[in-house]
């Protein structure tokens, strides 16, 4: 199982499910038996006192918000992104790596994802165009230390020859943010340049339909219904997949937009030729990047992933990621001490229970009710009444997690 969620209710970037999953923060009444929640640091990880097998286990981390879920490998690379749209038959579309079996082949797909979670070479991640000049920026391949912000957002800490590197994940405004924070190690000199960055967008966009082996999910990335496109004035790259129309004029398109930022500034991204590799893109850092590194001894590179479903004639209306709003929201989360219920005196067991609870609330729970603006006015009321009437209670589907494709089967249990 895997957890992630939020339904939009405009509580300062929050939501109904955010309130549910954060209800243990700052309680105003005692918990039964006189136990109060206690504040702890925002970051949490398996305690040092836990058994070595638990501390060094290679595992993935799933996270989510408002029906968008994602999974990072043990090395901090994205394995997949899933979003609930209410589409038939599954309700979900997902972003898949090229070697992952389509959702109909449940067992093989699970094996693919499990093996990829332990493979340093697999996953959506930041690459470097010239391996030789970028050697000092590339992690050494050791398994990163994993921790979580607010028991929810995974963080991976590793090293390169000259940098301490943190890879941090967060979801905000329908966008998955993958941030690399390079911090120069003490007593080491600055590199002479910030190298050309790169990403691969050779990805598959599929309906999470595990009931039938349909033609759309069988398509390879080279199929003519797949394509790439630079957009957003060259600051984003789009991977798109044309699918059967749901009734509107034109075909429907499921599209993934990827936008790069350096210290919050938008960067140009370009489809490039690279040894015949399909879907290879380069990011040329702006002139300010090296100055930032000199002044702060730190550089933040963020990749923003937005998955959308729309008609082919409205693709340009896709929401663009807004870094400043995301960043302020994330800083607020980091700056808010988490208060937790002490379920037990055993710190390792306590951490495990908290993480499982957060996983169920934010990844397994998928909000499926329509947003207020989509709900028609009650019979006999004016059209304007739609904005003032009482909000119906949220409808939440309890599913299996992101890795399991949010399937629900009779044999499933919690």
Describe the fold and architecture.
The chain is an alpha+beta fold and 414 residues long. The protein has one domain (16-398). The protein is built from seven helices and 23 strands. It has helices at residues 16-21, 52-55, 106-116, 215-218, 288-296, 323-334, 347-364; strands at residues 38-40, 43-44, 61-65, 68-72, 78-84, 92-96, 127-128, 145-149, 153-159, 163-172, 175-184, 197-200, 204-207, 226-231, 236-243, 252-262, 265-266, 269-271, 280-283, 298-311, 338-340, 365-367, 396-398. Strands 2, 8, 9, 10, 11, 14, 15, 16, 17 and 20 form a ten-stranded antiparallel β-sheet that branches. A five-stranded antiparallel β-sheet has the order 3-4-5-6-13. The longest helix is centred in the C-terminal third of the chain and has 18 residues, at 347-364. The protein is globular. The termini are close together. The model is unreliable at 1-38, 371-378 and 381-388 (pLDDT under 50).
List key phrases describing it.
single chain; 414 residues; alpha+beta; ten-stranded antiparallel beta sheet; 15% helix; globular
State the gist of this model.
With 414 residues, the chain is an alpha+beta fold. It is built from seven helices and 23 strands.
The helix-and-strand class reads alpha+beta
Helicity level, as a percent range?
A: 10-25%
Strand content: 25-35%
Q: Rough shape?
A: globular
Mean pLDDT equals: 81
Number of strands: 23
State the domain count.
Answer: 1
Number of helices: 7
N- to C-terminal distance:
8 Å
Q: Specify the biggest β-sheet.
A: 10 strands, antiparallel
Strand/helix succession: HEEHEEEEHEEEEEEEHEEEEEEHEHEHEE
Radius of gyration: 22 Å
Low-confidence stretches: 1-38, 371-378, 381-388
């Amino acid at each position: 199982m895997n957890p992630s969620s939020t339904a939009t209710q405009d509580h300062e970037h929050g939501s109904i499910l955010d309130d549910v999953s954060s209800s243990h923060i700052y309680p105003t009444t005692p918990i039964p038996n006189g136990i109060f929640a206690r504040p702890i640091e925002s970051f949490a990880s398996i305690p040092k006192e836990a058994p070595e097998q638990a501390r060094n286990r290679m595992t993935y981390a799933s996270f989510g918000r408002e029906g968008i879920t994602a999974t990072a490998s043990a090395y901090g690379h994205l394995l997949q992104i899933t979003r609930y749209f209410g589409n038939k038959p599954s309700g979900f579309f997902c972003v898949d790596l090229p070697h992952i079996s389509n959702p109909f082949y449940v067992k093989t797909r699970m094996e693919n994802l499990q093996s990829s979670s332990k493979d340093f070479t697999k996953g959506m991640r930041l690459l470097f165009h010239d391996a030789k000049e970028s050697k000092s920026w590339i992690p050494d391949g050791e398994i990163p230390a994993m921790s979580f912000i607010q028991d929810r957002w995974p963080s991976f800490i590793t090293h390169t020859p000259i940098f301490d590197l943190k890879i941090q994940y967060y979801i905000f405004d329908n966008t998955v943010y993958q941030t690399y924070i390079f911090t120069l190690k003490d007593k080491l000199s600055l590199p002479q340049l910030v190298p050309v960055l790169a990403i691969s967008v050779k990805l598959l966009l599929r309906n999470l339909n595990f009931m039938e082996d349909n033609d759309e999910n069988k398509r390879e990335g080279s199929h003519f219904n797949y394509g790439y496109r630079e957009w957003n004035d060259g600051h984003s790259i789009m991977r798109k997949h044309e699918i059967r129309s749901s009734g509107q004029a034109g075909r429907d398109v499921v599209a993934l937009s990827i936008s790069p930022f350096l210290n919050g500034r938008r960067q140009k991204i370009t489809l490039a030729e690279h040894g015949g590799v399909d879907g290879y893109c380069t990011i040329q850092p702006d002139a300010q990047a090296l100055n930032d590194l000199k002044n702060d001894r730190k550089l933040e590179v963020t990749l923003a992933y937005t998955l959308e479903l729309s008609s082919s004639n409205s693709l340009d209306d896709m929401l663009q990621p807004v870094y400043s709003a995301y960043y302020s929201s994330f800083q607020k989360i980091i700056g808010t001490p988490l208060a937790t219920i002490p379920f037990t005196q055993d710190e390792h067991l306590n951490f495990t229970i908290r993480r499982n609870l957060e996983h169920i609330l934010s990844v397994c729970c998928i909000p499926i009710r329509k947003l207020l603006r989509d709900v028609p006015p009650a019979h006999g009321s004016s059209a304007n009444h739609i904005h003032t009437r009482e909000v119906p209670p949220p409808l939440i589907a309890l599913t299996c997690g992101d890795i399991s494709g949010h399937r629900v089967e009779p044999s499933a249990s919690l």
